[in-house]
Amino acid sequence: KTPDRWLPRDPRLIRLTGVHPFNVEAPLSDLFNEGFLTSPELFYVRNHGHVPQVQDEAVLDWQFSIEGLVEHPLTLSLRDLLEGYEQRTYPITLVCAGNRRKEQNVVRKTKGFSWGAAGVSTALFTGVMMADVLEKAKPKRGARYVCMEGADELPNGCYGTNIKLRSAMDRDKGIMLAHAMNGEMLRPDHGKPLRAVVPGQIGGRSVKWLKRLVVTPNPSDNWYHIWDNRVLPTIVSPEESANKPSWWQDERYAIYDLSPNSVIASPAHDEIVSMDDPAESYCVKGYAYSGGGRRVTRVEVSIDKGRSWRLTDIDYLEDRYREAPRQHLCGGTLDMADYEASFCWCFWSIEIPSAELYSASDVLVRAMDDILGMMNSPWFRVAIYLDG
Ligand code: MTE
């Protein structure tokens, strides 16, 4: 029996974990060539199990509950969300916390499978602000987390995790209950008919096939919240980590905000770059993103193994919408006044004279976000002199 056999999937997608569950990324060049918005066909997929099958006729009747430490527990259908709440549309980049793990696995094997650099995608998500729904339910004093559960049935229960209630109530954080992607109903692999979208945080917090929101004083006790998406202290090896449940249960090691990241899409890895005319230049380009709503402010490229760095030009997706700051888009309102934070990837590029590239054996890239100049954390370096 092959689960998910009913689902059509794009043959260009690269499978990362055999036949099941479905974990895929697009070839990096295909993803990048799509531009800022990724089509649903090439949007990366991270599924822990089979995809819940929801017929189109049943979509509006999909129910989910808001319960726990709230004054007014609610059960809402997707129809209620569409009819009773303001619809919003925002461009949002989702990233799997494992994006680029392949490079790490080459240096030292981790417990996770090998994502290339395409475990990231961007779409215009339409839905309702989670804050609007939580306000109706009225969280009680002492509430700190919103635990979320999906409808997928997995070996260790359903998929679940939490976000902080403080972030969920803060509209500037852009956390949504989304039902559409690029103007069409969510595809089954991406949570049809309803999912959470948590911008600026690791993709694992954006629960798909959403069934329950439980407001709690404590973090989620869901198996997948505890045993996934954590960074244990580096002294714990992957082998040892299995014997340390108390470390896994320590919420301090749970990861939320994404960190700055940058990737070269062109030239591709191992590409043979032709140098017909040394007077010409080559356009080196790729993507970058950061987390927590911070904007990438600087992307630099080196062709001399990190000895010197050149500034690149950066093109921001959000800037495309600044000319019409309030507009109706994909069935929701996009309001850039609400969107000061940066929840999307940006594309950077730089022309490098071919003659200079000719002498390089590799190209490096690094990105910094808007905490540049503060919170400085490069390698600390001291000079020493030998005595005698
Ligand atoms: N939600 C449910 N219910 N089940 C899952 O397996 N995977 C999570 C998250 N939400 C998951 C889920 C992870 S780890 C990621 S990175 C994102 O969904 C991926 O979203 P996408 O498949 O739409 O790209």
Topology diagram in text:
Layout: E1 14-15, E2 23-25, H1 28-33, E3 45-46, E4 63-68, E5 74-77, H2 78-84, E6 88-95, H3 101-107, E7 120-129, H4 130-137, E8 145-154, E9 157-164, H5 165-169, E10 176-181, E11 184-185, E12 195-197, E13 210-216, H6 223-227, H7 238-241, H8 245-248, E14 261-266, E15 281-289, E16 296-302, E17 310-311, E18 313-316, E19 326-329, E20 332-335, E21 346-353, H9 354-358, E22 364-369
Parallel strand pairs: 4-13
Antiparallel strand pairs: 1-2, 2-3, 4-5, 6-7, 7-10, 8-9, 8-13, 10-11, 10-12, 14-15, 15-21, 16-17, 16-22, 18-21, 19-20
Bound molecules: ligand MTE.
Plain-language structure description:
The protein is of the alpha+beta class and 388 residues long. The mean pLDDT is 93. The protein binds ligand MTE. The site of ligand MTE has 19 residues, from strand 3 and strand 8.
Tags for this entry?
single chain, 9 helices, 5-stranded antiparallel β-sheet, globular, 5-stranded mixed β-sheet, alpha+beta, 388 residues, binds ligand MTE
Task: Give a brief description.
With 388 residues, the chain is of the alpha+beta class.
Quaternary form: single chain
The dominant shape is globular
Strand segment tally: 22
List all distinct small molecules, including ions and cofactors, that are bound in this structure. ligand MTE
Which regions are unreliable across 5 or more consecutive residues at pLDDT < 50?
Answer: none
By DSSP (H or I, 4+ residues per run), the number of helices equals: 9
- Proportion of helical residues: 10-25%
